[in-house]
Design goal:
This protein is of the alpha/beta class. The protein has 10 helices and 17 strands. The protein binds nicotinamide-adenine-dinucleotide. The site of nicotinamide-adenine-dinucleotide has 22 residues, from helix 1.
Length: about 375
């Protein structure tokens, strides 16, 4: 079957916009994918950010005004990866223009913005998904399948974390991600929360109430131009103790000494358990009761995820592979070819994640558990 051509445009040519360009450049690594994407257009408010895309020969349209991409009929699909305070305006405009897109999390700066975005998507009927790539690690897929199959039995306890140490250095200059007016009052939950909400929401674990421990550890950072201290007013670390019929603990940390992009999940039940961490990307642990003994066994899962690649199955999987898999999933689902493979986070899952974050803020304010 000839793959369906899809012309892609990027709005927001920063860290993540460049990751998509690299993923499309590696598309040949996918075996028999139903879609053939081509990156044709890029928008960024900064001409310097646009210049990076000079190296991508297929890009024929560069602009500093995102409305040019919305009006461009030669663009089929958009990736929107801009600061959080711009999500609502750009997502609503993309929906109104009838463009399908993969939008970066957290789908708006707060719950009210998420509600407006998701209502518009549903009314217009465009195909939209929310970025969340970590569940495409093969060990995460293994864990998801073990959980979704019901093999754990009655769930006893789930701990799910996304841990960075990117802000351990107090001298790191401030950027938009560390200022509430651009990143949102939800702080680190806007950055990392969707990553720990995706699998729980997909398997139907719905927190009914949340008790949150939120910390703003670093309250000032140097201004990048002057070096003078300026307020750093976002939550650095969030621990959400959720009641979901069992204890579900979701932790998102910008300051987790010893960790670097560690996404991990440990779920135990009366009949089994599973544990995976990107700190050990090839390895997954499974709990079982054998001959009356409690056994945690270790399996090597190698490189293969939802969409087969040419990469040898014994090799390791990494962040860039997860981005490639997420895009393979997004474009396959848009083409009606996802089958029973793992799908990207949906707008309603993005909205539900915001409901959890809003309850966490309420819990923080009232020092008590808040309903979701
Ligand atoms: N999925 C992930 O793993 C992951 C990782 C990092 C960031 N993100 C998300 O991606 C989004 C962007 O983050 P980033 O790290 O790429 O940020 P970034 O600061 O590196 O890039 C954002 C870009 O948006 C551009 N921009 C700002 N205003 C614009 C406008 N009006 N029109 C067009 N471009 C504009 C900026 O010039 C900048 O180049 C955020 O939503 C963030 O949460 C996701």
């Amino acid at each position: 079957m000839t793959p369906q051509p899809v012309r892609v445009g990027i709005i927001g040519a920063g860290l993540m916009g460049r990751e998509l360009a690299a993923a499309i450049g590696r598309w040949v690594a996918l075996q028999d994918h139903p879609v053939h994407p081509e990156l044709v257009a890029v928008c960024d408010a900064s001409p310097e950010a646009l210049r990076w895309f000079d190296r991508v020969a297929s890009v024929t349209h560069k602009t500093t005004d995102y409305r040019h991409l919305l009006e461009d009929d030669s663009v089929d699909v958009l990736y929107i990866a801009v600061p959080h305070h711009l999500h609502e305006r750009l997502y609503l405009d993309a929906v109104a223009a009838g463009k399908d897109f993969l939008g970066e999390k957290p789908f708006g700066i707060d719950l009210a913005a998420a509600e407006r975005i998701v209502a518009a998507i549903e009314a217009q009927g465009v195909f939209v998904r929310c970025s969340s790539e970590m569940p495409f690690f093969p060990g995460a897929q293994f864990a998801y399948e073990a959980i979704a199959s019901g093999a754990l039995g009655d769930v006893v306890d789930v701990q799910h974390d996304f841990l960075h140490s990117s802000d351990l250095d107090r001298s790191k200059p401030i950027n938009w991600k560390r200022q509430a007016k651009y990143c949102g009052e939800i702080g680190v939950m806007g950055d990392l929360g969707m990553h720990v909400a995706h699998v729980p929401l997909r398997v139907g674990w719905r927190p009914r109430q949340v008790f949150a421990a939120l910390s703003d550890l670093v309250t000032e950072r140097p201004d990048p131009q002057t070096g003078e201290p300026v307020p750093c007013d976002t939550i650095d670390n969030a621990t959400l103790y959720c009641e979901a019929g069992f204890p579900l603990t979701l932790r998102t940390f910008r300051i987790a000494p010893g960790h670097m992009n560690t996404w991990r999940i440990t779920a135990t039940g009366m009949d089994g358990g599973v544990s995976f961490s990107t700190a050990e990307p090839k390895t997954v642990h499974r709990f079982a009761i054998r001959d009356g003994r409690q056994v945690w066994e270790r399996s090597e899962v190698g490189s293969q995820s939802a969409f087969p690649t040419i990469t040898g199955p014994i090799f390791e999987f990494g962040f860039a592979d997860a981005i490639l898999q997420m895009w393979a999933s997004f474009l396959a689902e848009r083409a009606g070819e996802l089958g029973d493979r793992f799908g990207c986070a949906t707008p309603s899952e993005a909205l539900d994640s915001h409901r959890i974050f809003a309850a966490a803020l309420q819990s923080h304010r009232t020092h008590s558990a808040a309903p979701v």
